[in-house]
């Protein structure tokens, strides 16, 4: 098995992250997921902003070459996972789980309340993967307005609303310390 390390991304790796994103997108296309328009990766400007002010982590192999990444932004006390990708040749080997665990650790250290994302409901390796690590489908009435807006923006860009879903993983409240005896 390939040795994988999780670390902060470097700006000189943004081109490699774009290549990983496009490679992973091919897996969605191969699974029959309709992608509207010409596929694009996160811009270097966006990766730079997330790297400097939010959370951009890389999974790298034994030679320190990026093989996956996760980009998360703080929105209303939660990390919104804007993107998570692993090269197709290493998908299904636990790298995505490690990236989620790492971003969860960062979120908890910052006092955030959970993680949120939008994903494809019917892609075999998306929705069920997130369920398996503790995400739940955000239900009407409990979905934050900002996350509803993300879904609406995706629909405007051509993504089919019946195929998209918002998911959240809320952290349990931190214990407040031992109870004091009277």
Give the name of the CATH architecture.
3-Layer(aba) Sandwich
- Low-confidence segments, given as residue ranges, are none
Task: Determine Rg (CA atoms, Å).
Answer: 17 Å
Total domains, how many? 1
The coarse overall form would be globular
Class inferred from helices and paired strands: alpha+beta
End-to-end gap: 55 Å
What is the residue-mean pLDDT, rounded to a whole number? Answer: 89
CATH topology: Aminopeptidase
Tell me, what is the CATH class? Alpha Beta
> Biggest sheet, open or closed, and with what strands and sense?
7 strands, mixed
Q: CATH homologous superfamily, by name?
A: Gcn5-related N-acetyltransferase (GNAT)
Total DSSP helices: 5
Tell me the strand percentage band.
15-25%
Query: What is the string of SSEs from the N terminus onward?
Result: EHHEEEHEHEHE
Helix coverage percent: 25-40%
Strand arrangement across the biggest beta sheet? 1-2-3-4-5-7-6
Topology, number of strands: 7
Explain how this protein is built.
- Pfam families: Acetyltransf_1.
- One of its GO terms (molecular function) is acyltransferase activity, transferring groups other than amino-acyl groups.
- This is GNAT family N-acetyltransferase.
- The protein is of the alpha+beta class and 182 residues long.
- The chain has a single domain (5-170), classed as Gcn5-related N-acetyltransferase (GNAT) (Aminopeptidase).
- Helix content is 33%, strand content 25%.
- The chain has 5 helices and 7 strands.
- A 7-stranded mixed β-sheet has the order 1-2-3-4-5-7-6, with helices on both faces.
- Strand 3 (66-75) and strand 4 (78-86) form a beta hairpin.
- The model has no long low-confidence stretch (mean pLDDT 89).
């Amino acid at each position: 098995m390939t040795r994988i390390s999780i670390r902060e991304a470097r700006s000189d790796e943004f081109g490699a992250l774009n290549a990983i994103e496009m490679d992973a997108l091919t897996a969605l296309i191969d699974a029959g997921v309709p992608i509207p328009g010409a596929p694009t990766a996160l811009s270097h400007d966006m990766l730079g902003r997330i790297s400097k002010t939010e959370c951009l982590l890389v999974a790298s192999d034994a030679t320190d070459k990026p093989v996956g990444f996760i980009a998360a932004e703080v929105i209303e006390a939660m990390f919104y996972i804007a993107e998570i990708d692993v090269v197709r040749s290493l998908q299904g080997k636990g790298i995505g789980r490690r990236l989620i665990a790492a971003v969860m650790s960062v979120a908890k250290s910052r006092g955030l309340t959970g993680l949120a994302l939008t994903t494809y409901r019917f892609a075999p390796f998306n929705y069920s993967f997130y369920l398996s690590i503790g995400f739940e489908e955000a239900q009407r009435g409990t979905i934050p307005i900002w996350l509803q807006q993300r879904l609406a923006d995706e629909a405007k860009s051509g993504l089919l609303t019946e195929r998209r879903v918002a998911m959240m993983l809320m952290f349990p409240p931190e214990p407040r310390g031992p109870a004091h005896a009277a």
